[in-house]
């Protein structure tokens, strides 16, 4: 029986988020919580952006890789959750995106909305899991079922 070789290649034709992953998760409980606690969660922030070439030959493609960070702070307890990660993005014009980033740490509106909205969801889900594991108040208001009042 003979062996055949299959060449598998892919072409990225669409713009948008290709992948994301967390690279560092840090949490601390702080002091015991008594009374009201103020929970402040920052919007995810893009800390850096670089262009990475993938593929070979005619299949070469430039991708953007962004490092991000999101923090949640509990006061006066001193508890905190910090999430860092990276996101890979397929851009229409990666060189232009890198140029915008180099000039003023900005992105075009379409990319910015896509990236930040994706990271808000991703980080919020992780924050809820970590807060629950650490027995901290969840940093996002969750739906709550309450008893129905009975009229007399």
Explain how this protein is built.
By secondary structure, this protein is α+β, with helices and mostly antiparallel strands. The protein has one domain (16-133). Helices cover 24% and strands 36% of the residues. The chain has helices at 94-104, 109-133, and strands spanning 16-28, 38-41, 45-54, 61-75, 79-90. Strands 1, 2, 3, 4 and 5 form a 5-stranded antiparallel β-sheet that branches. Strand 3 (45-54) and strand 4 (61-75) form a beta hairpin. The longest helix has 25 residues, at 109-133. The N and C termini lie far apart (84 Å). 16% of the residues are buried.
Q: Key features?
A:
152 residues; alpha+beta; 2 helices; 5 strands; 36% strand; elongated
| Extended strand count | 5
Overall 3D shape: elongated
- Average pLDDT, rounded to a whole number, is 87
N- to C-terminal distance: 84 Å
Rg of Cα set: 21 Å
Name the helix and strand elements from N-terminus to C-terminus, one letter apiece.
Answer: EEEEEHH
Sheet/helix structural class: alpha+beta
The portion of residues assigned to helices is: 10-25%
Largest sheet: 5 strands, antiparallel
Q: How large a portion of the residues is in β-strands, by DSSP E?
A: 35-45%
Low-confidence blocks of residues: 6-13
Counting H and I runs of at least 4 residues, what is the number of helices?
2
Q: How many distinct domains?
A: 1
């Amino acid at each position: 029986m003979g062996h055949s070789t299959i060449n598998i290649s892919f072409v990225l034709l669409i713009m948008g988020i290709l992948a994301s992953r967390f690279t560092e998760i840090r949490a601390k409980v702080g002091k015991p919580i008594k009374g009201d606690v103020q929970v402040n969660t920052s919007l995810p922030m893009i800390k850096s952006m670089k262009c990475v070439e993938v593929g070979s030959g005619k299949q070469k493609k430039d991708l953007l890789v962004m490092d991000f960070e999101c923090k949640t702070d509990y006061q006066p307890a001193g508890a905190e959750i910090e999430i860092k990660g990276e996101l890979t993005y397929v851009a229409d014009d990666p060189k232009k995106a890198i140029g915008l980033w180099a000039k003023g740490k900005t992105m075009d509106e379409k990319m910015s909305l896509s990236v930040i909205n994706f990271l808000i969801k991703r980080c919020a889900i992780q924050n809820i899991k970590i807060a629950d594991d650490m027995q901290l108040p969840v940093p996002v208001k969750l739906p709550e079922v309450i008893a129905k009042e009975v009229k007399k």
